[in-house]
């Protein structure tokens, strides 16, 4: 399975959720709960709480020596960082799966509208990771090929979605995301999109020699750069979100989303809208 490739947005005013069903008291199997049942604000906030806990658990040592890239050692040397990466893919692919396994065309439209709202709210509350992964799920080819679905979306949702894809864009080395992050600062809680920071870290480590020839002096400039990148990550681990936990939604996000393969997603997508 290929990893979802992501990219972020700057928000205009968030949409007001029009569906405000209280899911905190819904009982029964989590399969009976749908994204269409959840207020987008609740979805964004609960996703943020879960992701911040995963993010804060990552120790600085886990960023050393590209250990998160090495299949042989990543679960031992970078267990929390590896888990955070797996979570991203689980949510992104899970979102795609929810859309393409929903048989009703109108229900698919409702779900995508909720997800666009939730991604916009994640952006507003500085959960960049959540924003990236929701948009990554919507950007999957199995979802993008659903032409009738996208045509049925009201223009205001399409405009917000367009803005979100601009923010997560990798163009100019994630320039828009960098701008968002700099504007946010470190005085509010943030869940960063770590894919961006890990890429910077790899370039800093691999693109600069550890010693300066011909006398083999330590390249302090390289290690100052690495320290700066790691410092930026760690600073976001200090401030906590104060949203109230809704266990029902936590359970849904952790255990109610199936991570289908790309081939499976495509086959389900064909059932939604066969090739013309």
TrEMBL record:
GO terms of molecular function: guanyl-nucleotide exchange factor activity
ATP-binding is among the record's keywords: no
GO process annotations (BP): Ras protein signal transduction
The keyword DNA repair appears for this protein: no
Keywords tagged on the record: Guanine-nucleotide releasing factor
GO CC annotations on file: plasma membrane
SMART domains according to UniProt: RasGEF
Residues covered by the Ras-GEF domain: 39-275
Origin superkingdom: Eukaryota
Protein name: Ras GEF
Species of the source: Basidiobolus meristosporus CBS 931.73
Biological classification of the source: Eukaryota, Fungi, Fungi incertae sedis, Zoopagomycota, Entomophthoromycotina
